[in-house]
Amino acid sequence: MRSEPVVQVQALVKRYGTKTAVNGLDLVAQAGVTAVLGPNGAGKTSTIETCEGYRKPDGGTVRVLGLDPIREAAALRPRIGVMLQSGGVYSGARADEMLRHVAKLHAHPLDVDALIERLGLGSCGRTAYRRLSGGQQQRLALAMAVVGRPELVFLDEPTAGLDPQARRATWDLVRDLRTDGVSVILTTHYMDEAEQLADDVAIIDTGRVIAQGSPEELCRGGAENTLRFTGRPGLDVASLLKALPEDCTAAELTPGSYRVVGKVDPQLLATVTSWCAQHGVMPDRISVERHTLEDVFLELTGKELRS
Amino acid sequence: MTAISTYAPKPGAAPLFRMIGAQAALETKMLLRNGEQLLLTVVIPTLLLVLFSSVDVVDTGSGKSVDFLAPGILALAVMSTAFTGQAIATGFERRYGVLKRLAASPLPRWGLMAAKTVSVLVTEVLQVVLLTVIAFALGWSPQGNPLAVLLLLILGTAAFSGLGLLMAGTLKAEATLAAANLVFLLLLVGGGVVVPLDKFPSGAEDVLGLLPISALSEGLRDVLQHGAGMPWGNLGILAVWAVLGLAAAGKFFRWE
């Protein structure tokens, strides 16, 4: 599958007025599923929308399937599928009506009835788009992105606000697309979604890619592991640190929830439990785990809330 | 029902005429399904035609009042569809991301605009047929050259479409909704639709005569009521509005 990259972004700059949303971003996405992660305002949507031909770069170059998304839009558009973050449908149109319409704009569309069935949109009946539930609207937008049998699909937060069943249905569809050779670029806030679906993850912050690799590569990031436990809030972390080997760190992440990061071995576990015994702490839910993508993400992008 | 056997890529745009046809059909369906739009494009013109023809509310000069009113109501029908209806619908399509989503489809932007024009023309044909039948039932006896009427209707549509799209593509959807309805009302009163322009003071009459609605209603009246030849003056006014409106819409229209 490693042939020509499906998306090549080089030194992309995108400004809105005085605000720089994308600041010299480089991103290469190969065939397969690429997840783009980042805090709100990191530049995910700006980057995706530049790839889709909606925004003109203020600097750098963008190639999608080898084409310039603006100058070669006419050649590119039939080959890509787009799911916007929201909207995109006539408020008075029915789900099947809109999907049939998008199918008609393509030469070899999927079977609309089968796709409706697949995504559980059959129950929408004669309901107008504006009266569909948020989940139904999302699934319709997803169906519209794939109905034209594109080579590459852009999904901007495809499962935001979906219930667990609808989320699984979306994941299953993305997996089927991948199996059948359709490439997918998706943005998401859900780390498990990226871990489950993506061959490749790019983490974006303040308009640049700050890490990229397979979920495994990103999680391996260093040989360090994590030990977590819960106890009563406000334990003396400094005293715990003193008991630990020098290269370890310890922190109270949220009140009562502690994390020790370092080379986790039986000796370390014993050190932590004996420190707890000395301090009269029952280390509830003590666990040893590899890094999750969420840890990597929070480490790279910080924990403060973004506006 | 058969399940989907493969999602394997097989991309391609449908033939252009089929895309534009499908788009025009959908746009027309959306318009005919929308109650507010039908009120504007069908109910109001029909009511005004029937009411003012049968009840002597305004002094429409000598002759049958339907002969004065029918051309004005036809002009109003064109304005309601090409300007008010199109502005409001397009404004909300822009607001709800419909235009944005379609811009990523194989349908080119000019194709979308062509489809909108076809949809407007189809609606106008339906309006003209309906209003003509009603006018005949009310005793209308039209004169003049059908070609001149057709030319007026087409230039009027172009002028109002340009202005409607300019509004839809630059203002917020709610502002477009309010402004388009207000303009509709003002031009209904001051554009020679049901109130003869010579009821206004002469200075005002001269200015009002330059409005696209006045050019259209007076032009249609010259031909259909008075049997005039080509109403070049009014056609010229409409052509200027069409060029200015469409050029400004082309320059300032924002798709999101």
UniProtKB/TrEMBL annotation, chain A:
<dbReference type="InterPro" id="IPR003439">
    <property type="entry name" value="ABC_transporter-like_ATP-bd"/>
</dbReference>
<dbReference type="InterPro" id="IPR027417">
    <property type="entry name" value="P-loop_NTPase"/>
</dbReference>
<keyword id="KW-0547">Nucleotide-binding</keyword>
<dbReference type="GO" id="GO:0005524">
    <property type="term" value="F:ATP binding"/>
</dbReference>
<dbReference type="Pfam" id="PF00005">
    <property type="entry name" value="ABC_tran"/>
</dbReference>
<protein>
    <submittedName>
        <fullName>ABC transporter ATP-binding protein</fullName>
    </submittedName>
</protein>
<dbReference type="InterPro" id="IPR003593">
    <property type="entry name" value="AAA+_ATPase"/>
</dbReference>
<feature type="domain" description="ABC transporter">
    <location>
        <begin position="7"/>
        <end position="231"/>
    </location>
</feature>
<keyword id="KW-0067">ATP-binding</keyword>
<keyword id="KW-0046">Antibiotic resistance</keyword>
<keyword id="KW-0813">Transport</keyword>
<dbReference type="InterPro" id="IPR050763">
    <property type="entry name" value="ABC_transporter_ATP-binding"/>
</dbReference>
<dbReference type="InterPro" id="IPR017871">
    <property type="entry name" value="ABC_transporter-like_CS"/>
</dbReference>
